[in-house]
């Protein structure tokens, strides 16, 4: 079974996906981490986003994988912490809009989910990557709640960032994600919309589990 979860930044997709995978014994795949890892490498190698040949070469010489703890590995390096910086936050939506990057990673994501029970989360999993997924969830929350969650998360990690900066970043990210030419964030017609505003992770888990059980039956 494939449980596909889409939604904007800060809705709790990562937390709920990990919880589902742990309790159901499924493999968790964070597609956002894959795009963030590519973004990190673009920054490190100072590749212009207009340099199609440079990006193609970068993709041809990049290896993405997940270790047993579901940490993202970029060319063998655990970059799970390094991909959560504000610098990566500011660029990842633009990077993930580049068609050749999207095509490459979608292919990898489909391969990862071809023979296992998985929970995969991102922005276009229910609409592009696995449009025939057995369980489709669109996880949402108010902008204010999403900003507060992301702001707290970044402060807890010791990052120096202002609330207004996080608010602006997420607002701009929403705009870019919803208007991408390829892989735009949208609600699949057959997706179950789950609003996490004001709900605990356990409440959201139980709500999604009901959809999983219905498909299992």
Number of domains: 1
Number of helices: 9
Strand arrangement, major sheet: 2-6-1-7-8
Summarize model confidence as the mean pLDDT.
92
Largest sheet: 5 strands, parallel
The portion of residues forming beta strands comes to 5-15%
Return Rg in Å: 17 Å
Q: Judging from the principal axes of the Cα atoms, what is the shape?
A: globular
The CATH class name reads Alpha Beta
Ends apart, CA distance between termini = 12 Å
Predict the CATH topology: Rossmann fold
Strand elements, count: 8
Q: What order do the helices and strands follow?
A: EHEHHEEEHHEHEHHEH
CATH architectural arrangement: 3-Layer(aba) Sandwich
- Helix/strand/pairing category: alpha/beta
CATH homologous superfamily (4th level) name = P-loop containing nucleotide triphosphate hydrolases
Share of residues in helices: 40-55%
Plain-language structure description:
The chain has 217 residues and is α/β, with parallel strands linked by helices. It has a single domain, classed as P-loop containing nucleotide triphosphate hydrolases (Rossmann fold, 3-Layer(aba) Sandwich), CATH 3.40.50.300. Helix content is 51%, strand content 15%. The chain has 9 helices and 8 strands. It has helices spanning 13-24, 31-44, 52-60, 86-95, 99-112, 125-129, 143-156, 163-178, 201-216, and strands at residues 2-6, 27-30, 64-66, 72-74, 77-78, 118-122, 135-140, 192-195. It has a 5-stranded parallel sheet. A hairpin with a 2-residue loop joins strand 4 and strand 5 (77-78). Helix 1 (13-24) crosses helix 9 (201-216) and helix 7 (143-156) crosses helix 8 (163-178). It is globular and about 45 Å long. The mean pLDDT is 92.
């Amino acid at each position: 079974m494939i449980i596909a979860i889409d939604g904007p930044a800060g809705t709790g997709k990562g937390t709920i996906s990990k919880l589902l995978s742990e309790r159901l014994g499924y493999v968790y795949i964070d597609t956002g981490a894959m795009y963030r890892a590519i973004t990190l490498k673009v920054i490190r190698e100072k590749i212009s986003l207009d340099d199609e040949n440079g990006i193609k070469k970068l993709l041809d010489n990049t290896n993405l994988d997940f270790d047993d703890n579901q940490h993202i590995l970029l060319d063998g390096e655990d970059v799970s912490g390094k991909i959560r910086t504000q610098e990566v936050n500011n660029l990842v939506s633009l990077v993930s809009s580049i068609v050749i990057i999207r095509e490459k990673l979608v292919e990898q994501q489909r391969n990862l989910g071809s023979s296992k029970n998985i929970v995969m989360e991102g922005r276009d999993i229910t609409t592009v990557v696995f449009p025939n997924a057995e369980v489709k969830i669109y996880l949402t929350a108010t902008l204010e709640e999403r900003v507060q969650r992301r702001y707290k998360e970044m402060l807890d990690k010791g990052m120096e960032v202002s609330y207004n900066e996080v608010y602006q970043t997420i607002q701009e990210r929403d705009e870019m994600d919803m208007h991408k030419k390829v892989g735009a964030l949208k609600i699949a017609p057959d997706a179950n919309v789950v609003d996490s505003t004001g709900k605990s992770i356990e409440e959201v888990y139980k709500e999604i589990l009901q959809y999983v059980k219905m498909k299992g039956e």
